[in-house]
């Protein structure tokens, strides 16, 4: 099984189930990624030498999130995590071992039916340096609304109940 195939990424990492309920139009917008693409997202829990954690606010999140995004075809999950950290924070992160894999079920909000399955892997990572102003971060304008170092994990963490034990 390839590292990018569902169930194949980070086989030794803890696994958690996550159900993501989205409007049908958002489900359809993600379907190609899930069915013809990798169906895999990689993120990094980036810490600096002082133990601070780097987090971002995106145009789609309710709160702070780990820097991360879709794994491209022919890209390894750790490479994707490093690329996403660079795009979203400006930091060059050294990616370490996986921390957790979330086995995700994408559910249509109106239908209640599972549309597709995906995986979200979080890696430990190390980096140092200043995080630039959000205007210069992300792939498209306004993708990243804010990015910064935190001394402690903030209360306003997107998917906080699920992620907090691994941060």
UniProtKB/TrEMBL annotation:
Pfam families reported for this sequence: NUDIX
InterPro entries: Nudix_hydrolase (IPR020476), NUDIX_hydrolase-like_dom_sf (IPR015797), NUDIX_hydrolase_CS (IPR020084), NUDIX_hydrolase_dom (IPR000086)
Record's keyword terms, sorted: Hydrolase
Cofactors (names): Mg(2+)
Domain of life (superkingdom): Archaea
CDD domains membership: NUDIX_Hydrolase
Residue ranges occupied by any Nudix hydrolase domain in the UniProt entry: 37-167
GO molecular function, one term: hydrolase activity
Region described as Disordered: 1-21
Protein name: NUDIX hydrolase
Organism of provenance: Halorubrum ezzemoulense
């Amino acid at each position: 099984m390839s590292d990018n195939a569902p169930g194949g990424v980070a086989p030794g990492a803890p696994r958690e189930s996550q159900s993501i309920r989205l409007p049908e139009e958002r489900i359809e917008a993600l379907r190609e990624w899930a069915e013809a693409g990798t169906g895999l997202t990689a993120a990094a829990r980036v810490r600096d030498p002082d133990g601070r954690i780097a987090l971002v606010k995106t145009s789609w999140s309710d709160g702070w999130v780990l820097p991360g995004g879709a794994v491209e075809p022919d890209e390894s999950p750790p490479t994707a995590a490093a690329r996403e950290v660079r795009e979203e924070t400006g930091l060059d992160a050294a990616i370490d071992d996986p921390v957790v894999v979330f086995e995700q079920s994408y559910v249509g909000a109106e239908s209640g039916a599972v549309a597709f399955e995906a995986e979200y892997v979080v890696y430990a990572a190390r980096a140092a340096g200043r995080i630039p102003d959000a205007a210069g971060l992300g792939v498209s304008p306004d993708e990243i609304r804010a990015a910064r170092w935190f001394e402690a994990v903030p209360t306003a963490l997107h998917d906080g109940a699920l992620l907090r034990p691994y941060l």
